[in-house]
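Pilot study result, target chain (167 residues):
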Amino acid sequence: MTESAGTGRDAEVVSRFVESFAAQLVEAGMTRMPARVFAALLSCDAGSMTSAELGEQLRISPAAVSGAVRYLAQTHMVSREREPGSRRERYRVHGDQWYEALTNRDAVLKRWEGALREGVTNLGADTPAGRRLAETLAFFEFFDGELAALMERWRVHRDEMFGPEGP
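Predicted structure:
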């Protein structure tokens, strides 16, 4: 492989980026195969690939692609699209995938806040454990409020940099 799917780019250079960025994602806590699939999609000019294309580029099995895509779709980092007139799916990464992934964490944070609130009540706010839980709850409530404001500032900044349609 010397060129990447008609782009004129050296496939080895692309592969090195994919593996390097995937390694960074793994170090941050993502599992290896979803990290590799995400990096491959992110580095693809079209921003989308089929299972076969991902398998060929990454030299992985269809089952590995399927599992990775399932994880990435659940975390809102990729979406599935049906090719018109075909049963084949394409997997797409969007320019605002980080925004979407963080925004969709809101439901998780709300569940954590509820569990922590219950823990403070059950353990007692005046106990050392209850105080730790209360401080953790306060952090998540603070983070939740700040995240909403931060995401709004990001939308404005992104529009200034790339226009309302994005890159």
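One observation from the pilot: The helical segments are 11-27, 32-43, 51-58, 62-74, 97-103, 106-123, 128-162. A full batch analysis is planned for the follow-on phase.
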